[in-house]
């Protein structure tokens, strides 16, 4: 377990690899950060562009158990309050499934998590770049990543319309854009 620098409020976050014992808490966290009325308490909500689920227990277990992948659980005062997925892909790592409890958004915890994820990818796997995909209409979220050093590539991939495991789109122009940052 690794303790990171303290965010502006609350206790020190600790990072650990998630286990299947964490699945229910992680699904609830991810859903609360992105879907439904609870997500509107934070600024990362997707409630206006996607309804339905963001993930499910099977999807979280798949990330936890995938070789070369880890799901970092972030705890504050013994409670899982954030998470992110890291996947080793050769010279780069992939960052995904990033969620921070809406009650803690805006307190600086996200920046701490990003820095820790980049450190882990660099030190554990020798990754030179971090890649992520973001729904291209999420301008405020993309701007946040740009302030953390990520750059837009213009490389788009289609949103999985018709696959309700990823939510029910409320608009017809959704696609993912690849963002990249050099980390080592």
From TrEMBL:
UniProt keyword list: Acyltransferase, Transferase
Domain N-acetyltransferase: 13-175
Database matches in SUPFAM superfamilies: Acyl-CoA N-acyltransferases (Nat) (SSF55729)
Pfam families: Acetyltransf_1 (PF00583)
UniProt keyword annotation of Phosphoprotein present: no
Database matches in PROSITE patterns: GNAT
Repeat listed as a keyword: no
Cross-referenced InterPro entries: Acyl_CoA_acyltransferase, Bact_Acetyltransf, GNAT_dom
Molecular function via GO: acyltransferase activity, transferring groups other than amino-acyl groups
The protein's name in its UniProt record: GCN5 family acetyltransferase
Phylogenetic placement of the source organism: Bacteria, Bacillati, Actinomycetota, Actinomycetes, Kitasatosporales
